Amino acid sequence: MDRNPFLFEMIRSELEEIVGPDYIRTDEPSRLVYSTDWSWMPQMWLDRGERLPTPDYIVHPGSAEEIAAIMEVANKYRLPVVPWGGGSGTQGGAVPIYGGILIDLKRLDKIIAIDEKSLTVTAQAGIIGQQLEWALNERGLTLPHYAASSNCATLGGYLAPRGTGTVSTKYGKAEDMVMSMQIVLPTGEIIRTPPVPQHASGPDWPRLFLGAEGTFGIITEATMRVEYLPAARLLRAFLFDNLSHAIEAGRRIMTRRLHPFVIRLYDPESTRTQVKRVLGFDFEGAYMVIGFDGDPDIAALEEQKAIAICLELGATDVGREPGERWWHHRYDFYYPPLSLKLPWMYGTTESVATYDKIEQLYWAEKRAVEEGFREWNIKFIAHFSHWFHWGVMVYSRFIIEEPPRDAREALRLHNRVWNAAMEAVLANGGMINEHHGVGLKLARYMRRQYGDAWPFLVRLKKTIDPNGIMNPGKVGF
Amino acid sequence: MPTDTVIATTDNCRYCLMCRHVCPVGHVTRLETLTPHGWGLTIASVRRGVLRWDEATVTMLYQCADCGTCRAHCVTDQPLPEAIAETRAEVVAAGLAPAAVLAVAEKLAAFGNPYVDRHPEPATGEGPVALFVGDEVPYRWPTALDAALRLLAALNIRPALVGRGRNNGYLASSLGFPDLARSLVQATLEELVAVGARRLLVLSPGDYFAFHRLYEERLGIPRLRRLEVEEVVSLLERSLATGELSFRQTAPGAPYAYLDPTHTVRVDGRWEAPRRLLAAVFSEPPRELFWRRERTHPTGATALQFTQPDLAAMLTTARLEDARRAGARLLITEAAGDLAMLAPLSPRFGLEVRHLFEVLADQMVVPV
Predict the structure, then answer these.
(1) pLDDT in tens, A423-469
(2) DSSP reduced 3-state for A392
(3) CA dihedral for B137, B139, B140, B145, sign (positive or negative)
(4) Quick check: B43 contacting A, CB < 8 Å?
(5) For the segment A31-42, what is each residue's pLDDT rounded down to a tens digit?
(6) Contact between B17 and A149 using a beta-carbon 8 Å cutoff
(7) pLDDT score, position A4
(8) What pLDDT was estimated at residue B240?
(9) For site-directed labelling of B300, which of A271, B74, B292, B367 has its Cα 20 to 30 A away?
């Protein structure tokens, strides 16, 4: 917004009346810290000593009612509203590109109820995932959304981009665990979705808010399905010298309705680089970790069936330790300096497709990236995780270790690489994203992804958010 | 100029969010700015010229509690608290330190402690075992020393007393005065040599961290060769296990909780010993707090109590609220600084606070 001091102070005083003076910040370091999420583009911009657009006001509401009142101010002054959970998004979904009011939800961090009979937890959306998980663990329960970002992401952040965690293959995506939500609409109404998700009482409208990434409103509370902590977790690893056979093994395990909580298949390049660097295994080929959990007898029996499938397809069973080590260090990949780190250029162009298309998609994307940007000595790595009965997600990444130093040039190159990857994804029947969300990064592909359905989504957006205040520039809106 | 440690660490931490869930300051303030990522990004941004050290950035820099929780949970052991302390030293050298920070440093320089206008007392006794008294016990919870000495006497240990009324150097180091910290440490180390101690007992995990790690790592003071450092609580627990020490069990009373002291996370696995000792005294197990053991959060008994009293009170209140939620009526811990922070606020939460050593000394079976 125009930081004319008169208007700035007018709006600030109205926001202060809503949340109190202790819960609004406009100082320079706070505005800088809230100017970037975990996505590469803004991080790179700051890394090169450039300034990003910053929020004008960082507001910390303590209730849904306060958020509703903030919406009124935002609509009156036509100010952008950007919801902020943990800032752990990789797609720029929380970057306040047009300034305005950034709403940090972390004061909404209460656990409202744990229902040990129906196995649900109701919590405010600003609670950090790991803190919620610890509280559930004390009752022998777990919310089986084990995202790599659980240490920092919030419950609302699990749901807004339709996140997926490590054990999704058995327990589903975050969106599959949600029973009901409280949402503050852009027009200020506070609504609740029905108490259960499966019914025949009209259309499934609550799902509109899953994947909208704050463009349709702000999730302030959610009731989630939880599970008992498993009595056993059995993990082991296999090596395949043929990636096709490894994907086929995963397909057979899933379509024969075994219930692994994880199948993590690293392509040969990832096995040679990432797996060696973080886990220390000097493996050749494609490294696959498979895990079964729950009742120890059932888990053991299912594991035997999975072993048979893998051996039938030529795998080498490398035993439990390489599976267990991965499990215990599965998040180490995300700690610096083990993680991909600036000044490198990188991007996760993850996608999902049905089994008949996924391998072709992988090779097409790999070719497009490696051949299209050979002069940058680009690397393409991938793993396959989040397996469904009908297909699998490919977590593909590109890495350039010596990108342009100039921020503008680097940003353009980043977009060009991403374009090449997305072209390959769309041309091969994939979705532009499976679990990181659309955010700012993928917004420009939405029209193409949805084709004739896109104008319908735009009309929906205009109805729900008539002044277009909610997280503008994201998800294609 | 920032050192390599500051540059490498803050460049690593500026975009890493993997310890957000445990940062106590981030937890009570809910501010992104006041998290390891926020501090890392701010320091890195000053270096890149996107921010500068001014009142807002310096205030923020001094809002880190220096409790060590981020580092304890970091898979790659990023020394962010050390990098923040080094950065504070740069700010001090540039003449930009806040007045409250300078006031603490002046007190430490003049009296060796930030609490009272009194000089440290000379060491007493001599022999192979010494006890570091420090400043928190005499000036914040003085009855704890007598209790500790009674427990040690039951084990036929009559230690020389060193560092009587002198800060262990942590405060000065944390606030960005490494030379002042070194001079305080040096005075205590000279006393240790003078009394002929080969074994040093300490009264809290904060003191253990100082002697075991901070001096060498943060201040560049080599560890005294052949000086073995041990927490009193660990010695007592070993003595309980071997039967050298025993306690009378109390009748069931008010539900109690044990608060792992500030800096617990900096001492690997130290949380079992106090719980085993309490199990010998109380027939009921403690009510466990949410922020316990390896995820222990501090009270405000760090430099924050002087420089950011409101934030220190928020941290202290959070500990009491945690105990209240656990259903406790009695809260036990063994760091004098923590107890002094907790005691004035505890009635508001329906809690009584007691020093672990006093509880143990009262229930000790005195050897005949």
Answers:
(1) 999 999 999 999 999 999 999 999 999 999 999 999 999 999 999 99
(2) strand
(3) positive
(4) no
(5) 999 999 999 999
(6) yes
(7) 87
(8) 97
(9) B74
Band of residue B223 on the pLDDT scale cut at 50, 70, 90: confident
Q: What is the pTM of this model?
A: 0.96
Length of chain B, in residues: 368
Tell me the three state secondary structure of residue A410: helix
Please write the tens of the pLDDT for every residue from A152-162: 999 999 999 99
> Does A152 contact B18 at a Cβ distance shorter than 8 Å?
yes
- State the helix-helix crossing angle for A243-255 and A355-372, rounded to 10 degrees: 150
| Dihedral (Cα; A433, A434, A435, A438), 10-degree rounding | 20
Q: With a CB-CB cutoff of 8 Å, which residues 222-281 of chain A face chain B?
A: none
| DSSP for residue A197 | S
Angstroms from A101 CA to nearest CA on chain B: 15
Q: How far is Cα of residue B123 from the mean position of the Cα atoms in its chain? A: 22
Dig out the tokens for B87 from the structure: 């950065």
| ∠ Cα A149 A153 A158 (to 5°) | 95
Residue type (1 letter), B348: R
Closest in A32, A48, A134 to B51, CB measured: A32
User: CA nearest B236: which of B207, B186, B278?
Assistant: B278
Transcribe A90-104 into DSSP letters. Answer: SSSTT--TT-SEEEE
Cis amide linkage into residue A21, ω under 30° from 0: no
Strands A286-294 and A232-240: antiparallel
Using the predicted structure, report yes or no on whether residue B1 has a pLDDT greater than 80: no
Q: Given this model, what pLDDT does residue B2 score?
A: 77
Most A-contacting residue of B17, B34, B52 (CB-CB within 10 A), to test interface: B17
Span A304-317, average pLDDT? 98
Contact B48 A49 (CB under 8 A): yes
CA end-to-end span of chain A: 19
- Give the three-class secondary structure for A288: strand
Maximum distance among all alpha carbons in chain B?
70
Helix (H) or strand (E) holding A86: none
What ipTM does this complex have? 0.95
Altogether, the residues listed in chain A come to a count of 477
* Per-residue pLDDT tens over the stretch B277-330: 999 999 999 999 999 999 999 999 999 999 999 999 999 999 999 999 999 999
Q: Which residue has the higher pLDDT, B13 or A3?
A: B13
Residue appearing with tokens 């490294």: A287
Q: Give me A125's structure tokens.
A: 């959306």
Looking at CA atoms only, how far is residue A119 from chain B in angstroms?
A: 21
Pick among A28, A105, A279 to test the B interface (most B CBs inside 10 A): A28
